[in-house]
Specification:
The protein is mainly β and 206 residues long. The protein has a single domain, classed as Electron Transport, Fmn-binding Protein, Chain A (Pnp Oxidase, Chain A), CATH 2.30.110. The chain contains 4 helices and 14 strands. The longest helix has 9 residues. The chain is globular and about 50 Å long. The structure holds flavin mononucleotide (FMN).
Length: 206
Amino acid sequence: MYFRPGTHEEAGLSFSPIKAIISPRPIGWISSRGEDGSINLAPYSYFNAISEQPPMVIFSSAPMGNSGHKDSIRNVMETEEFVVNIVSSALGNAMNITSGGLPYGESEFAAANLEIADCETVSVPRVAASPAALECKLWKVVELPKPDNADAGIMVVGTITGIHIDDKVIRDGKVDVTAFQPLARLGYMDYAQITNVFSMKRPDTD
Ligand SMILES: Cc1cc2nc3c(=O)[nH]c(=O)nc-3n(C[C@H](O)[C@H](O)[C@H](O)COP(=O)(O)O)c2cc1C
């Protein structure tokens, strides 16, 4: 099978398969604060680490047509800060609740019954129950190129300025992901948990 983006139905596929092909994807559970002081929390699986030095991450939002930006994007543009909270398997249901479209200013922390914890380098709160959280400052908002006859998404690039890790998931000086089983996004409505980890030595290391 071969087809061009946007023509999957003509190829016999009900849904675009791109997200299923590029999977698993980590979930950036983004907390942010607006200039009015309101707080927001929402999952983004167009999310990843993009550099170790400087330590940087991106997340991106689907276009919203004429209705402006998603709340997370609006807040990051206003206050230039955000936090990436890591989603353990145990937090999967709460994460899903926070993907609901609440009116601007209504807190998804409250809707999902999540306790808030403070950060050090940003005024944005984090999810207290997350096994790890990355405090981030905005570097750039990138408007993605507009396709013909369609709107374009928008990408946030941020620099990590502080790192929280729950001491319970550190074993022998390393983060043990099997202790919290990070949730990953697959295609469609599907998810995966990381439960089985193995190591491979690179050829040029001892
Ligand atoms: C696991 C998961 C991943 C998601 N990833 C994205 C994403 O990468 N980009 C996006 O625009 N929406 C994504 N969504 C949908 C947003 O979470 C949803 O539109 C949410 O209401 C946005 O909230 P906000 O307006 O408070 O930022 C995702 C939803 C789920 C459940």
